[in-house]
Amino acid sequence: MDKTVPAIERLPRRTLQRSNGPLYRQLADLLREPITSGEFPVGSELPKEAEIVERYDVSLITVRQALHTLETSGLIKKRSAKPAVVQSNAPQMALGWTFKNFNDMAAFTRDAELRVKSYRLEPSATAARHFGLAEDEKSYCLRSVLAIGKQRKAQITTYFPPDIGSRLGKDDFDDVLIFRAVQKRLDIRMAVANCTVRAAIADESVVTDLGVTKGSAILIVEMLYRDAGQRNVEFSIARHPADMFSITYDAPNDLA
Fold first, then answer.
1. Which end of the chain, C or N, has fewer beta carbons within 10 A?
2. Are 46 and 86 in contact (CB under 8 A)?
3. Domain ranges for the chain
4. pLDDT, tens only, 11-54
5. What is the DSSP letter of 74?
């Protein structure tokens, strides 16, 4: 790092536009680049908040939200009345999930891998109901674990209707996003995903797959994917350790 160059000049010059999403998230991405590249080494100071405000023509609140995002990921340490200091050039594994669209799903699985355990016909009354099958009719079931390195993020159980599942094999699930693998293999475009979140207790299968304590709290995220014709084509159940997972979303004030 050339210390003769002012800190603010080491930040990339770009224009932030609201059409590209929340400004604080765009700004956090911009600030993250020179940190992870080493342009700002550990122990160095970021530019002052007021300098960032002026450079990117955003509000002080936006800057502070962006810095909070970086602090949450372990990259920086904010200080009162002083510039933030770089703590690490490598972000910690994301424990939260900002979920509003399919791009956010992709962001959540960045750097992760899908470890497939099995793919076969299995009974599931819930899946049968979603797919309009008889209660005792089996659906194709993919069992897998989502992990980053040695850390296991989720146990994932995914069901497909018989006519769709029969066209897939275990080796087809080579994408960390299962719905994206289906789109690629079968040319089925997912139009929307209905998300349900609920709390539960870890059973033996979760203990085995995630290494948590039996009876500990887990968070279940159920995703029901529909194609452009509004047919239910995939039902996925992701079980996460509760202390590793949260959902964050923007809530605009739409009250009159």
1. C
2. yes
3. 7-86, 96-248
4. 988 899 888 778 888 898 899 989 988 899 999 999 999 999 99
5. T
Residue 159 and residue 140: Cα distance in Å, rounded? 6
Q: What is the CATH number of domain 96-248?
A: 3.40.1410.10
**Which of 237, 231, 254, 38 has the alpha carbon at shortest distance from 130?**
231
Q: Does residue 212 sit in helix, strand or coil?
A: coil
User: Could you count the other beta carbons within 10 Å of the beta carbon of residue 154?
Assistant: 26
155, 156, 165, 154: which is closest to 122 by C-alpha? 165
Give me the helices (H) in the chain, please. Answer: 23-36, 49-56, 60-72, 102-108, 125-131, 162-165, 178-186, 204-210
**Cα 215–chain centre separation:** 25
Domain 7-86 has CATH 3.40.190.10: no
Joined tokens for residue 134: 């008889």
Q: Say which residue the tokens 């700002």 belong to.
A: 40
C-alpha 173/C-alpha 181 separation (Å) is 6
168 half-sphere exposure, CB direction, 13 A CA radius? 33
pTM over 0.90: no
Nearest to 234 by CA among 95, 102, 97: 102
